[in-house]
Amino acid sequence: MTREPLIFDLSDPGKRPFGLPALDVPEAPGLWEGLAARRDIPGFPQVSEVEVVRHFTRLSQLNYCVDLGLYPLGSCTMKYNPKVNEKIAGFPGFSGVHPSAPPDTVQGCLEVIKSLEDALAEITGLDAFTVQPSAGAQGELVGMMLIHAYLKSRGNPRKFVLIPDSAHGTNPSSAHVCGYQVQEVKSDPAGRVDLAALEKAMTEDVAALMATNPNTLGIFESDICEIARIVHSKGGLLYMDGANMNALTGVVRPGDMGVDVLHINLHKTFSTPHGGGGPGSGPVGVVKVLEPFLPIPVVVRRGDGFGLVADRPLSIGRVRSFFGNFLVAVKALAYIRTLGPRGLREVAEVSVLNANYIRKGLEGVYDLKYDAPSMHECVFSDKLQKEASGVTNLDIAKRLIDYGFHPPTMSFPLIVHGALMIEPTETESKRDLDGFIEAMKAIDREARENPDVLRAAPHRSPVRRLDETGAARNPILRWEKDERP
Amino acid sequence: MSYIALSDKDTAEMLARVGVANAAGLFQCIPDGVRLDRDLDLPPAMSEPELLAHFEAVAGRTTYPRYLSFLGGGVYHHFVPAVVDYLSSRGEFLSPYTPYQPEVSQGTLQVIFEYQTLICQLTGMDISNASLYDGASAAAEAVLMAQRLNNRRRVLVARSVHPQYRRTIETYARNLGLEVDEVGFGPDGRADGAALGAKLGPDVCGVVLQSPNYFGIVEDLGRAAALVEASKAVFIVVVAEALSLGVLEAPGKLGADIVCGEGQSFGLAPAFGGPSLGFLACAKGSLRQLPGRIAGQTRDVDGRRGFVLTLSTREQHIRREKATSNICTNQAWCALRATIFLETMGQAGLREMALQNIHKARYALDRLTRVPGVKGRFSGPVFNEFVLDLPRDASVVAEGLKARGILAGIALGEFGAGLKNSLLVCVTESQTRANIERLASALEEVLR
Predict the structure, then answer these.
(1) How many domains does chain B fold into?
(2) A347-470 — its CATH code?
(3) Could you report the per-residue pLDDT of B124-163, keeping only the tens digit for each?
(4) Which residues of chain B have pLDDT under 50?
(5) What is the pLDDT of residue A2?
(6) Domain A84-338 belongs in CATH node 3.60.21.70
(7) In chain B, at which end, N or C, are there fewer CB atoms within 10 A of the end residue's CB?
């Protein structure tokens, strides 16, 4: 595998520029009066179009992706991204539309937003949604802001937010960015929220509990109704991180379990592509009493059409420009319309079946710290392999690359040491699941017989193990001219 | 239509292997009382042809594409070379996750590294993150970053900053006890230097200016920087029209401490406002307070160059509530499009595109202010947007132009009575002289 040069090393200022039409107006006189202009952009590349196409085509070939195979990253729901949704998002009536256009000229766009909000409300059992948040983490932040604003309107925003020790790292961070102090709630021996610990921690200084259900161990919080009762009894609110909603669609609704605020990820449950890290979308749903606090503007039905309302005195305001990642919303709505009610229930059923099939295949081979029933993902660890030969979850993960699979999520949740968190999603075939199980078993055998092959893995990737410590210690974060070889 | 890849036989075998009789058996851990005992109340499933027809009808109810549009104000109609759509729609770029496993993510990581370099070159700053959600949230993150850098509590934001950006800054600042104060604008449309000087003090954490500002006026960043520097506040420059960086001096060369903004102009469709591309760049010394993901260069065990996500000790999966921000992803695919766009345009192409914006906007400003009763509102230099003062309420005039098939701009009534008759008009390289002429004639008719 040859390495692909940086574009800056291919650049030649003598190359012809990209052609634009000739200027059809007279040049403006006194162009630079009162302006600080630049003559050039030092180091900025100049290459031909064919070089650009080859550069990015070669770079693309260095990536693993869902379109290539199983991508069992736990908590990330790497399901197939339907191609027709990309085509729909590209319709000029969606992609070519300016967000400041008068509402009567953008009825189709407003219809998409309102229809998606309504569908999400039905799927989650909550009363109202906003699609403004750009990602799950921004959804969490909006959720916290809504809770803060609501409690403040009732006299006291309170000080603390309770977060289980198995939670995603963004939960405590989002609560903190909203000005709350975080208190951790321990899990019980079965891997669920410890009710006694919750009862003790839940006081009238606590604004909310941020729960994930199914939690990050892939375990359903069966005491969810009791959890809600405890939180509500002290006047707090129950926030649900909906990252794992893929296990629940059409089977059970958070709103029916006592959840007051929730964010979901359109790029997980609703199939929109992750794009190597974004754009995502993290809509937030709320119960009726929190609706007046949602970000502005709000899309409303008006007669046969749709309008916008920005005059909402209780609103938290805005968390970004315009209407969120609109084209992501288009794709998610297309997905919901494709599947319909039965299809959405099948998503939950098959994602749980696939996860349990993998669990069954690997139980006994890899250690399962918590043996409660699994939902859409299961969390193994490297305990047995480590005891046998000292190899770690990192070695196992890197070796999976040689077998043609993307590794699972590693070292999370924090309460499982050496975690390997596997989420196959509903779109995988039995053949691929069997292939993955066989690869994991083969790696276990190698861990016992030839552990060095794991420690040196991956062997068949474009680059081998990279020096991450060195990267952090001596940060090189951009190309610079004097670094040319 | 569904995307399940199991046959009935597969399902039966797998259920048997798992040891349950049917799918319902998989959900026994959910208490009976809360399980949904009905189908979701949603329209039935659609096949792909039905789906396409349905959404063609929905998209058709948006009539915007039929209008001649001069809308700007944070989202711009620019030409996008065909290679941007072609390359960015490759599944290898669209369908991976965040590059947690660098050995099989070198494509995404090298693109981010190139993106970071391009942003540094354009802004004149030392370092850039891997991108943020959009310009508004990038501005808010810049303010939080300033607060972490000097721990002061008051932020000065120019009123000529995009109103949605200002609103977003307020939302983020509110719960953290940061006070947001405004600085007005002068007759040239630039932030009022005297007012800024008067409001600066040792408690001011950061000053936020946008250039070109919401009125399209290029700010005098050097002058503002000198004022801000004296108070040791963090000078944050927002660029909502990133194309301007192709010809205007890099804010980093004019004294900015943080440069952030919106990169939609670099190859992203208007898309009703999103997906968008927030960028944020700063000086090396502020690295530890920079929010968001960052890619860095390193070597593999064989000594080959490679790239990784780095400096994650700032981030929430390690630092949890002590993290520099709650952002755990970037807009990688949008940053990819910007990178393809910028590398395709090249230095010369980008400059030419930016220049055409200035020439066309200034031609249009000149032409439109020759319509009787129409005046330029501000005297400062413009990039590709300008404010017209009309003899009547601008929203009424805009309605009249709309009836003639033209969306002429954004009425600025929300800025208060002083701008009730003002219209923000945007003219990019995508407008022709004939379109500008059509707007001028229609405006003359409406005002007659």
Answers:
(1) 2
(2) 3.90.1150.10
(3) 999 999 999 999 999 999 999 999 999 999 999 999 999 9
(4) none
(5) 53
(6) no
(7) C
Residues with Cβ within 8 Å of A139's Cβ and at least 6 positions away in sequence, in order, are A133, A263, A264, A265, A282, A283, A284
What whole-number distance in Å separates Cα of residue B199 and Cα of residue B209? 14
Full-model pTM: 0.97
Q: In degrees, to the nearest 5, what angle opens at C-alpha A326 toward C-alphas A323 and A332?
A: 130
Range of the domain at B289: 82-340
Whether residue A476 lies within 8 A of chain B, CB to CB, comes out as yes
Phi, psi of B30 (to 5 degrees): -90, 125
Q: Give the per-residue pLDDT at B194.
A: 96
Q: Is residue B58 part of a domain?
A: no
Supply the pLDDT for residue A169: 87
Q: Is B49 on the interface with A (CB under 8 A)?
A: no
Give contacts of A 363-382 with B, CB under 8 A: 372-373, 375
Residues B298 and B392 in one domain: no
Query: Between chains, do A46 and B346 touch, taking CB under 8 Å as contact?
Result: yes
Mean of all residue pLDDT scores within chain A = 96
Is the CB of A485 inside 8 Å of chain B's CB atoms? no
Question: Residue B364's domain is classified under what CATH number?
Answer: 3.90.1150.10
Percent of chain A with pLDDT strictly greater than 90? 95
CB B60 to CB A108 under 8 A? yes
Question: Mutation test of the interface with chain B: which of A9, A25, A83, A455, choosing the one with the most B Cβ atoms within 10 A?
Answer: A25
Distance separating alpha carbons of residues A374 and B27, to the nearest angstrom = 9
What is the share, in percent, of chain A residues with pLDDT greater than 70?
A: 99
Q: What is the pLDDT of residues A162-189, one digit of tens each?
A: 999 989 889 999 999 999 999 999 999 9
CATH number at residue B108: 3.40.640.10
Identify whether the C-beta of residue A298 lies closer than 8 Å to the C-beta of residue A286: no
Contact assignment for B137 to A134 by CB distance below 8 Å: yes
Q: Is the dihedral of CA B414, B417, B423, B424 positive or negative?
A: negative
d(CA A425, CA A408): 12
The reply to whether A61 touches chain B by the CB within 8 Å rule is yes
| Yes or no, beta carbons of A430 and B137 under 8 Å apart | no
The encoded tokens of residue B228 equal 């801000």
Beta carbons within 10 angstroms of residue A275's beta carbon: 29
DSSP per position, A150-212: HHHHTT---SEEEEETTS-THHHHHHHHTTPEEEEE-B-TTSSB-HHHHHHH--TTEEEEEEE
Q: Hey, are the CB atoms on B59 and A276 less than 8 Å from each other?
A: no
**Complex-level ipTM:** 0.97
Q: Do A37 and B407 touch (CB under 8 A)?
A: no
Does A156 contact B at CB distance below 8 Å? no
Banded pLDDT at A485 (limits 50, 70, 90): very low
For B444, counting Cβ atoms within 10 Å of its Cβ (0-12 exposed, 13-18 middle, 19+ buried), the class is middle
Q: List, for residues A124-150, the tens digit of each pLDDT value.
A: 999 999 999 999 999 999 999 999 999
Tell if the CB–CB gap between B98 and A406 is shorter than 8 Å.
Answer: no
The segment(s) of chain A belonging to CATH 3.40.640.10 are 84-338
Same domain, B171 and B114: yes
CA–CA gap between residue B350 and residue B258 (Å, rounded) = 23
